[in-house]
Amino acid sequence: MNHDSLHRQLGHFVLTFQAVEAAVVELTVQVVDADPEYVATLTAELEFNAKARALDVIFTRYAQIHGLSNLAPHPEFHKLMTRIQKLATRRNELVHSFYSLLVTVNGEAALARMPTRLKPSDGIREQEGEDILPAKLEPEILEMKSILQALEVFRLQVIDINYP
């Protein structure tokens, strides 16, 4: 019953998500073909979903200009941004929660996640818990790694167009 592996996995999730966020900003830099400091300054105060939504629109325009797609939004890229935003929601759930240690009836170490959300319009405080077992986060971490690979494919495509 060692919870250290779960703590490492939770940290791995958060750090991998930060890599996704950095890749989104880097792709934005490549698409707008600008000084990275300009893009970093413009995106510094944006929440992650705003960065992803902006890049979705920027990439669609880029794809139209360079003949990659005349559709709006760019179908493949928009699907990728949707996947990213889903993971961003999950990241927020994980980071903005309280945790306690848990041991299953089988003696397996786990974490009990307890988020607290206020719903002022309903006058309630919502607390829907989740038990996180060792295998729970692995598919989400793999999804982020897949997203990083997809972002890299788009980044390289943009570099090839900008620097033939």
From TrEMBL:
Protein known as: Uncharacterized protein
Organism: Duganella margarita
